Amino acid sequence: MPEEKEQLTDLPYLEVPRPEEAGTHPTSTPNMPPMKNPPEELKDIAAKTAAPGSAQARKADPPEKVRMAKPLPKAEDDPGTWEFGRRSFLRAAGWMSFFGFLTIATVGALRMMFPRTLYEPPKSFKAGKPNEYLPMTVSEKYKDTERVWICRDEENIFALVAICTHLGCTPRWLAAEAKFKCPCHGSGFTFEGINFEGPAPRPLERAKIVLTESGELLVDKAQTFRYENGDWVKPESFVKI
Ligand code: FES
Q: Range(s) for CATH 2.102.10.10 in the chain?
């Protein structure tokens, strides 16, 4: 056995191709290993015809060195310069439009929570006790605030609306002449409110007047009574004393 080992070590080195390279090397055949020291011509042919990516191919045609582009300087590297280009302008315009829309929508939503409503003053008011008014007198206590006279004759109290039926001026009570006189065009009305001179086409109107449970007079201007319609005989057009 030792003699056989020496004989094997004396044999020349035999390069055995790997299974995947078998048959692809030009110095080999599918059934024959490559030559140990092939001539230079065969080496060149082997390198040129080697499989792409193999060691022989890279040796024959080494990849060129790739020149990398020089990286651009970052904005924070140069804080001293600021360019406002088209892209920056469009970005700023977009943000401004967004926040503008947001502001308008918010203001509109808030305004919806507080509707602008006009509240008219109440049409009714309390006019005191009946005994505060003397017979055959006209009280101008509520003329300026309510545009109503409280009139009392021998039997009744009624509320006369102080609006001229011509064009809406406020007539004056002339106690000495016992009549209402309009300063605008001269219309005249009797103590009861009947028109008897001037352009006024019809008598003054009366407002609703009732006596409350507490004994006070309550006048409601929302409901009026017209003489020409026969309303002055209706119960709520006067209060019987
Ligand atoms: S408005 Fe009273 S007379 Fe014309």
A: 124-240
Residues lining ligand 1, CB < 6 A? Answer: 164, 166-167, 169, 182, 184-187, 198-200
Q: Which atom of ligand 1 is nearest to the CA of 182?
A: 2
182 close to 200: Cβ distance less than 8 angstroms:
yes
What pLDDT band is residue 1 in, cutting at 50, 70 and 90?
very low
Topology of domain 124-240, per CATH? Rieske Iron-sulfur Protein (2.102.10)
What are φ and ψ of residue 68, in 5° steps?
Answer: -80, 140
Q: How close is the Cα of 173 to the center of ligand 1, in Å?
A: 14
Name the residue with the closest Cα to ligand 1, atom 1: 167
Rounded-to-integer distance, Cα 106 and Cα 70, Å? 49
Judge whether residue 218 has pLDDT over 60: yes
Where does the pLDDT of residue 235 fall: very low under 50, low under 70, confident under 90, or very high at 90 and above? Answer: very high
Count of all residues that appear for the chain in the document: 241
What pTM value is reported for the model? 0.55
